[in-house]
Design goal:
Blueprint lengths: L3 E4 L2 E4 L4 E7 L7 E8 L6 E7 L5 E3 L7 E6 L4 E6 L8 E9 L7 E2 L3 E6 L1
Length: 119
């Protein structure tokens, strides 16, 4: 089974930028949809952004719209999350996930990467 691994997290000042990567251990089927989630300490997991693996259709949570950009490189089996103008409220563990397009639940998850934004 394909495994996902995030990288790129770290500590950044408010207003700064980070680029997260999600590398798959093998090819991602064109029927999959990919997503970034995040979970702040003491809060529920939140959907941040999604992208279809075979198309360019994207979705963003209102809280990140205009600041974050999701993209993928099919040849490298990697997904990215470009995060600009970061705010302290963006502090969380960020997870990448994948699901079959016709199934609502995400079945593949990475281990998460910590993003901390200082004020």
């Amino acid at each position: 089974q394909v495994q996902l691994a995030e990288s790129g997290g770290g500590l950044v000042q408010a207003g700064g930028s980070l680029r997260l990567s999600c590398a798959a251990s093998g090819p991602i089927s064109s029927t999959y949809a990919m997503a970034w989630f995040r979970q702040a300490l003491g809060k529920e997991r939140e959907l941040v952004a999604t992208i279809g693996w075979s198309d360019s259709i994207t979705y963003y949570a209102d809280s990140v719209k205009g600041r974050f950009t999701i993209s993928r490189d099919n040849f490298k089996n990697t997904m990215f999350l470009e995060m600009n103008n970061l705010k302290p409220d963006d502090t969380a563990v960020y997870y990448c996930a994948a699901r079959q397009s016709f199934v609502p639940e995400y079945s593949l998850w990475g281990q998460g990467t910590q993003v901390t934004v200082s004020s």
